[in-house]
Amino acid sequence: MLRTIAVTLGTILAISGQAQADEVWTTPVGEVVYEADLETGEAVLSFPGESGQRLVGIFPGLAGKSEERGFFAGIWLDPESATEGLCPGAMADPIGGGQAYTWGRMDIIFTKPDFPGGFVVMKGTCFDQATDYLIAEPVVGE
Description:
The chain has 142 residues and is mainly β.
């Protein structure tokens, strides 16, 4: 049964993320990768964290959009902070099903409305306003 669930989940993620699977952006601190689309309409992107870990950004309304991209308000979380972290409470991890004690607001605005385009992302920690930013340029295949 557990194997069936894992195979089904893997198939859903592979199919739902297929349109954006090749989207990668470069930043001064590492690559941002479009990981998957959730059935509930959120796009999942992974970002380089300050300590080398991968942070997860979740953006409602972005799933499946490769045209007419603009501003999307979302959240980020550190999946490695399941038992302790920077925030006073935990955020549910919609990907791994656990919780994260390091999370915050993350806003993304694309610099071009259609694929391939770069973006600027603003990040805040816990309940703080977004103050950290990251500029990302698309990696275009040769």
